[in-house]
Amino acid sequence: MLKIMCIVGVRPNFVKLAGLIDALSDMKLFIVHTGQHYDHVLDGEFWHDLQLPDADANLRVGSGSHIYQLTQTISQLEPFIGDFKPDGILVVGDANPSLAGALAANKMGVDVIHVEAGLRSFDNSMPEEINRKLVDGVSSLLFVTEQSGMNNLKNGCWGGAHLVGNVMVDTLRKNKDRIDKSDIIERLDLDDYVLCTLHRPSNVDGERRRTQIEDALLRIKREHQIVMPQHPRTKLKYLKTFQPAKYTDFIKLLACAKMVITDSGGVQEEALALETPCLTLRDSTERPITLERGCNRLVEPDGLYTAFRETLGTKFKFELPALWDGHASERIAKIIKVYYGDKPK
Ligand code: UD1
After folding, report:
1. Alpha carbons 279 and 297: distance in angstroms, whole number
2. In whole angstroms, what is the distance from residue 299 CA to residue 282 CA?
3. Helix crossing, 328-342 with 167-174: angle to 10°?
4. Per-residue pLDDT, 325
5. Is residue 199 lining ligand 1, measured as CB closer than 6 Å?
6. Is the Cβ atom of 127 under 6 angstroms away from ligand 1?
7. pLDDT at residue 343, as a whole number
8. Cα(171)–Cα(178) distance, rounded to whole angstroms?
9. What is the per-residue pLDDT for 157?
10. Which of 328, 336, 330, 334 is nearest to 3 (CA)?
11. I need a surface site. Which of 116, 117, 182, 212 has the fewest CB within 10 A?
C-alpha cells in the first residue's frame, strides 16, 4: 500500500486536506498537524467541522518568528518521517507548514507532492511567494489549479506538473448540504451584508494602512452591514468582529454576501466558485484567473469605497475555470498512483 504523509498546520491547509482525504482513502496516510494554528478560532472547531480524522501527530509549534516555526517543524518532523517511511510527503498551498514539510522531505530523500503548485504573485515581499517557489523547487509531483500556474512552471523548466483543478472546490461540493443547513445568517441577523476578512501582515500590522482600510470600511458600513470573522492577528479599533466561523458557517456567509472584501488567497477562489463579487485588498494576486473572470478586483485602501460602489452596480457573469468541477482530488490520486506504479522501488 502506498504510504503518504500529509503535512498541514494552518486553516487554509485544513480546507484543502478535507477535499483530498476521500480520494486518498486507499493509501496509508499519516497526517501531521504542525500546530501553527492552535486556538479554537483557527483550529479546534474548524478542523472538526471539516470532518477531518484526528491528526496522527501534532507538533504544537504554535506562534513565533518564521525561522522558529520552520526550524521547529523541520526538526520535529525528522523522527516521524524516519519511522513512517513514506513514499511521498504531500503539502498543500504556500504557508510555513508546506515549506517546512517540503524541506524535511527533500533532506530525507522523500518525494514531495505539492498541491496548489505553480501560483505566483511575483511579489517577493510576501513570505508565501518565497514558500511557493521553494516548495515547487523540491517537488516531484506538482498539482496545479489554473493555467497561469502551468505557464509559470514551464518557464521555470519544472517537470511533473499537472493541471488538475482546485481541491477547495472539491471541499465546497463535498460539504454543500451541511453549508446549506448552516443557520449563521439567522443567528447573526443579517440581511444585505458585505463579508470582510483581513489578516495579511501588510494590511493589518502597520497602523497607517490598517487605519485607511478601517476608514473605508466604516464608510461602507453606513450603507450596508459588514460581517467580519475575527483573525487573532487583526486588531481593529472601530469595527466589531465576531468569533468565527466554522468552515460551513463561513462558506454560507460567503455564498450569501453581496460582496466580499478580503486579502486572503483562497477566499478569492471560493468567491468565484460561489458567484460572489470580490474586492481584494492587495496589489497583486497569485490567482490571476479570478481577475480574468472579471469578478475579482485588486484595490488599494484609498480606492476601496469607489471600487465598492462600482462593483455594487455591476452585473457579473461567473464562469468556473476548467477542471474546477469537484473532481480535482480524484485526478490527483490517480496521478500519484500512476507515478508510484511506474517508478522502480
Ligand atoms: C498564516 C500563513 C498565511 C495564511 C494564514 C491563514 C504563513 C507564513 N502564513 O498566517 O499564509 O494565509 O495563516 O490564516 O504561514 N495566532 C493565534 N492563534 C493561533 C494562531 C495564531 O492567536 O492559533 C496569532 C498569534 O499572535 C500569531 C498570529 O496570530 O503570532 C499570526 O499567526 P501565524 O500562523 O504566524 O500567521 P497567520 O497570519 O495566521
Report:
1. 5
2. 6
3. 130
4. 97
5. yes
6. yes
7. 59
8. 11
9. 60
10. 336
11. 212
Whether residue 114 contacts residue 143, with contact meaning beta carbons closer than 8 Å, is answered with yes
* Residues designated catalytic: 199
User: How many A from CA of 36 to the centre of ligand 1?
Assistant: 7
- Residues contacting 126, CB < 8 A, separation 6+: 202
pTM check: above 0.85: yes
Ligand 1 pocket member 11 (CB < 6 A): yes
- The residue whose CA has the least distance to atom 29 of ligand 1 is 233
What's the CA gap between 297 and 278, in Å, rounded?
A: 7
Pick out the chain residues at pLDDT < 70.
Answer: 156-158, 244-245, 342-345
Distance set, CA 63 to CA 125, 230, 232 (Å): 20, 17, 11
Q: Measured from the CB, is residue 12 less than 6 Å from ligand 1?
A: yes
**Number of Cβ atoms within 10 Å of the Cβ of 31:** 19
Question: Which DSSP letter does residue 161 get?
Answer: E
Q: Could you please report the per-residue DSSP string of 285-333?
A: -S-THHHHTTSEEE--GGGHHHHHHHHHT------PPTT-SS-HHHHHH
Distance 37 CA to ligand 1 centre (A): 6
Q: Which of the 8 DSSP states describes residue 2?
A: -
